[in-house]
Amino acid sequence: MTTAIDPDFPCALTIEVPFPTSRLASTALQALQVDKELSPLVSRIFALAPSQHSQDALAPNTETEASVLRAEYRATTNRMLRVAVNSFMESLNLIIEVMGELDEDVLAAGS
């Protein structure tokens, strides 16, 4: 995906995090969206996207599930981008740890 460079936010990064199911990706999205970005120097957009595996030609009858969490960050400087992405990664790590301990889908997949 090609996007135009915003002169106000020249530094950008897109992170895609695959989840085993669309429900887990949606849960992570909802947990992350609660906290607003603290700095006006950073802009972020969260979205769900289909997994590349669900679009596989070997599974033409598979219904496409949005099981990838996409985070698009833009910032005024590389430093602000790094700080925002570091915070995102820490929050994501906590969410995934909680899912690993408490979520039935994750527990079932690990068995």
UniProtKB/TrEMBL annotation:
Pfam families: Pcc1 (PF09341). Signal peptide: none annotated. Belongs to the CTAG/PCC1 family. It comes from the Eukaryota. This is Transcription factor Pcc1. InterPro entries: CTAG/Pcc1. GO terms for biological process: tRNA threonylcarbamoyladenosine metabolic process. One of its GO terms (cellular component) is EKC/KEOPS complex. Coiled coil: none annotated.
